[in-house]
Design brief:
183 residues, four-stranded mixed beta sheet
Length: 183
């Protein structure tokens, strides 16, 4: 498995930028630690394009940036679909029945929250109905899955759990696919 690299950063306007849309003319900083990032683009394609910290930052990892990037891009996409009242087609493998499902992610959703504080949980993304009840949560997994007590809380409250596992930078591109593949 290839070593994970930093493929997203914030630009000077605090907009999340994917490496494919990055430009040497802009300045960037890290999503996690805020340190200035350098854009490394190989003209000959000899190495993978990535961002690098200008100075080393303790406890800032490509895994945490991948997690946060996917969460922010997905949150933006869901919000855009809610704002325009357009379906968001997706497919996922259900944690409960282990079957593949397809549908409209926001069919019963009226609002979306990132890092929504609940009694026993703080999901990456929570989908809420018109009464403000959490009907589904999205947990993005890079290094560790949600704890069993959190999953039990979701089950006890009839909250659908969608788990998205990311293992490489290219997984970030799934958030932009026409049909969002969550598994």
């Amino acid at each position: 498995m290839k070593k994970l690299l930093y493929v997203t950063a914030y630009n000077q306007n605090d907009q999340l930028v994917h490496i494919d849309n990055a430009s040497k003319e802009e300045q960037y900083h890290c999503l996690e630690c805020g340190v200035e990032m350098i854009l490394r683009k190989s003209e000959l394609g000899l190495r993978r394009t990535n961002f690098a910290h200008k100075t080393l930052a303790a406890n800032c990892t490509p895994e945490s940036v991948l997690h946060r990037s996917f969460k922010e891009f997905l949150f933006q996409r869901i919000n855009n679909h809610l704002a325009t009242d357009t379906p968001l087609s997706f497919s996922w493998k259900c944690d409960y029945c282990k079957e593949q499902h397809k549908g409209n992610l926001i069919k019963k959703c009226n609002n979306v929250k990132m890092e929504f504080a609940m009694e026993q949980a703080r999901p990456d993304i929570a989908l809420l109905d018109s009464q403000g009840n959490v009907i589904a949560v999205i947990e993005i997994v890079v290094t560790h899955r949600p704890e069993e007590k959190v999953l039990a809380f979701y089950r006890e409250n009839n909250i659908i759990v969608i788990t998205i596992e990311l293992t490489k930078e290219d997984d970030l591109n799934r958030v932009f696919d026409e049909v969002l593949s969550l598994s």
